[in-house]
Write a structure and sequence with these properties.
Elements: H1 2-17, E1 25-27, E2 36-40, E3 43-48, E4 51-56, E5 62-65, E6 76-82, E7 87-92, E8 97-100, E9 106-109, H2 111-114, E10 122-128, E11 131-136, E12 139-144, E13 149-155, E14 162-166, E15 169-173, E16 179-182, E17 194-196, H3 202-206, E18 213-215, E19 218-222, E20 228-234, E21 237-245, E22 257-261, E23 264-268, E24 283-287, E25 290-293, H4 297-302, E26 313-316, E27 323-327, E28 333-337, E29 340-345, E30 366-370, E31 376-379, E32 387-390, E33 396-399, E34 410-415, E35 421-425, E36 432-437, E37 449-453, E38 456-457, E39 463-464, E40 469-474, E41 480-484, E42 487-491, E43 508-510, E44 518-520, E45 527-532, E46 538-542, E47 547-550, E48 557-561, E49 573-578, E50 584-589, E51 592-597, E52 613-615, E53 627-630, E54 637-641, E55 647-652, E56 657-660, E57 673-680, E58 687-694
Antiparallel strand pairs: 1-51, 2-3, 3-4, 4-5, 6-7, 7-8, 8-9, 10-11, 11-12, 12-13, 14-15, 15-16, 16-17, 18-19, 19-20, 20-21, 22-23, 23-24, 24-25, 26-27, 27-28, 28-29, 30-31, 31-32, 32-33, 34-35, 35-36, 36-37, 38-39, 40-41, 41-42, 43-44, 45-46, 46-47, 47-48, 49-50, 50-51, 52-53, 53-56, 54-55, ...
């Protein structure tokens, strides 16, 4: 029975990953918050915080659009429709422009994006006939939506907030009440031709947008988080007839922290900053291809005086998959059961202290993290006692360390396999890495080891006084990789962190140019997040430099992904998470979420024939991608042989995975037949065999 169950699970798993190809990218835009809709015939196009989906009012089909499917960029700022041109216009934040028709055909106009102009701030869009007028900080431009070209660019020195075409006459509204127009036959390009007028009021220009679009007898409204809704008007009464239309997706394009618990991805969508960047308190879960999000209505309704902003962490009870804790920016610790808020822990019901006794909107309970004993650790920032622990019995324990008392931005806990715990103190007073070891006595600090290192000194004695400390991650060898604003550093043995002569290591990469010199790996690069895959390779996210993949020891740069030449959404990476089975790398950026299918997965503890899966299998004639073997142990030796026993290919697994390009050692595609995959564990003490059928 166990063998049958194992085979069934393997088949289910295979069906879920067989459609994925190593090197494949995907994006996950949010289609939940409907901000504007336009219609083109029977199709309603809806803008959702910079993303786009369509709804066919006749067959009720929904279609989503993204930068990998139809569109040429990310984050749409302006949208309009022209029935004459039979196209909609999409203007992106970076001034790129797409024209899209109902058949999915796209015409891209990149001239405005590529042109160097001062103050290209996008303000508004007006469509008149087949002409689109884009209002900007420098003036405005006209786009012929039928011909697919920019007709004119008017740099007139007016910050045009909105534009009205009335009987062929343009009227421009500014930030104040001023309205400009131009006389007939005057040159639109000359700033002096535009004169103030009182013939049209600003409100008449700015109030052009209809509240709804009418299609198929219904009035369609973009109603925020309620989605796209169709209403029927009868006898002065409005009744909901269709909707809400909301494709399953993240509730918002906010990804600050992510982590996997089994197959479940937990997402916190806020940001931990003292600056006024206030995002809704977003906490999301992605599982089995479906998105859900934690209750937002209860906090807003039951605690209306609290400012529910910036969820910075989301954690799951290891003993109850429907029990979660989340930490909004400064309103305490939120506890959820079955996605519903059940309790807010604050200074009224716990030792969590307010910042400066400023009230319940000033309680930071950051980084809720479970340890192996089921204790929930919290960072009570900017108070005398930073470390608070909620024990399984419901009682709280407070742990005081003088070095971090009053620290304003402790950002995260890292619990290592050595028993040493670290806190990342991101910025300002007390910034640095704080290591502590409780010696198994949670309530007694007298036998603890604890050190705050605000300055990093490397193995060569070079000292770095850094302004930002961002992240830490433990690799499969127990080494701790540390990301800072000034580069990448390594703690080789956490137990030595407390010694007076401790030094961080900066990985050196030899130049191999005869000079005998070497360079520090990613020195000076701002490292924001680090994830370790099943092959012990490091995925390194940066601020402004995209995503790096380096070898287990850091000596080899394997990949460098940037938005300029890959589907990576942005070069500003905020968080990373790697699926343990599929090797999917989830990449949270400042504009949304994307993913990349890696060639490494977590290794199995031992080689078991029933766990070995090769896909695609059989390999059909039209398939030219990589062939993947999964279910291997770490550093398995893999040989691929023909049916006659001739060695075709060999190599070592990346964690639990091995890939073959379907070629022999000479780079030629192999012929049809059955090929034997022989895998040995790293010690060479056990071997398993599976088969791949090649059809040519």
């Amino acid at each position: 029975m166990k063998r049958i169950a194992s085979i069934l699970l393997a088949l289910i798993w295979l069906s879920s990953v067989s459609a994925q190809t190593i090197g494949q990218w995907n994006v996950y835009p949010s289609y939940m918050n409907a901000t504007k809709c336009v219609s083109l015939g029977k199709i309603v196009y809806t803008l959702t915080e910079g993303n786009l989906f369509s709804y066919d009012t006749e067959d009720e089909s929904v279609m989503t659009f993204n930068c990998m499917d139809h569109l040429n960029d990310v984050h749409i700022s302006l949208i309009g429709a022209s029935s004459e041109a039979k196209r909609i216009i999409l203007v992106y934040d970076n001034c790129n422009i797409d024209l899209l028709d109902n058949e999915g055909n796209v015409c891209n106009i990149s001239a405005l994006k590529d042109k160097s102009l001062s103050n290209k701030t996008l303000n508004a869009l007006t469509v008149d006939g087949s002409m689109a007028y884009i209002c900007t900080g420098f003036g405005f431009l006209t786009v012929d939506m039928k011909e697919g070209v920019i007709r004119d660019t008017y740099q007139i020195g007016i910050d045009v907030q909105s534009l009205l075409m009335k009987d062929g006459q343009p009227y421009l509204a500014t930030k104040d009440t001023t309205v400009y127009t131009i006389k007939e036959n005057e040159n639109w390009h000359l700033a002096g031709s535009w004169q103030k007028t009182s013939d049209v009021k600003k409100k008449d220009i700015t109030n052009q947008e209809p509240e709804y679009v009418r299609v198929g007898g219904l009035d369609w409204h973009a109603e925020g988080l309620k989605g796209l809704v169709g209403y029927k008007e009868t006898d002065d009464k409005r009744e909901q007839a269709k909707g809400p239309i909301q494709p399953n997706s993240p509730v918002r394009d906010l990804f600050y922290r992510m982590n996997y618990v089994g197959d479940r991805l937990l997402v916190a969508g806020g940001i931990n900053t003292p600056f006024a960047i206030y995002h809704p308190a977003t906490a999301m879960i992605y599982e089995n291809g479906e998105w859900s999000y934690l209750d937002e209505e209860t906090p807003a309704n039951e605690y209306p005086k609290l400012k529910h902003w910036n969820t910075t962490h989301l954690t799951q009870d290891p003993n109850d998959p429907e029990h979660h804790f989340a930490s909004p920016y400064r309103t305490g610790l939120y506890e959820y059961k079955n996605r519903k808020l059940v309790k807010i822990w604050n200074s009224d019901n716990s030792p969590l202290m307010q910042i400066g006794n400023l009230g319940l909107n000033y309680i930071s309970a950051n980084a809720p993290t479970y340890d192996e004993e089921g204790n929930l650790w919290v960072l009570n920032n900017q108070t005398d006692t930073i470390i608070r622990v909620l024990q399984p019995n419901g009682k709280w324990q407070s742990i005081y360390y003088e070095e971090i008392a009053g620290t304003p931005t402790p950002d995260d806990y890292i619990f290592t396999s050595s028993g040493v715990k670290f806190i990342v103190n991101r910025r300002v007073a007390g910034r640095g890495f704080f290591g502590f070891y409780t010696n198994g006595t949670l309530g007694n600090t007298r036998d603890d080891y604890h050190v705050l290192r605000t300055t990093i000194v490397n193995q060569d004695g070079t000292s770095y006084d850094l302004s930002e400390f961002y992240c830490m991650a433990e690799d499969l060898d127990g080494r701790i990789w540390c990301g800072t604003i000034g580069g990448l550093f390594v703690i080789n043995d956490p137990r030595q962190y407390f010694e007076d002569d401790f030094r961080f290591e900066q990985v050196k990469i030899a130049r191999n140019d005869g000079s005998g010199l070497a360079d520090y790996l990613l020195n000076g690069v701002s490292i924001t997040c680090i994830a370790v895959d099943g092959a012990n390779r490091k995925w390194i996210g940066t601020q402004g430099n995209g995503l790096y993949l380096v070898s287990p020891d850091g000596q080899e740069m394997l990949q460098h992904f940037q938005s300029e030449d890959t589907p990576l959404l942005s070069n500003n990476i905020q968080c990373l998470a790697i699926h343990p089975v599929t090797g999917m790398v989830m990449i949270g950026t400042d504009v949304g979420l994307c993913s990349y299918v890696s060639d490494a997965t977590e290794a199995e503890e031992e080689l078991i024939a029933d766990n070995i899966i090769a896909y695609p299998n059989p390999v059909k004639p039209d398939y030219t991608g990589p062939i993947t073997i999964k279910g291997l142990t770490l550093d398995s030796e893999v040989k691929i042989c023909s049916s006659t026993g001739q060695l075709v290919w060999s190599g070592t697994s990346n964690g639990g995975s091995f890939t073959w390009n379907g070629c022999n050692k000479q780079g030629k595609r192999v012929s049809s037949g059955v090929y034997h995959v022989i895998a040995n564990n790293a010690e060479g003490k056990k071997a398993v065999i599976t088969r791949i059928i090649m059809i040519r």
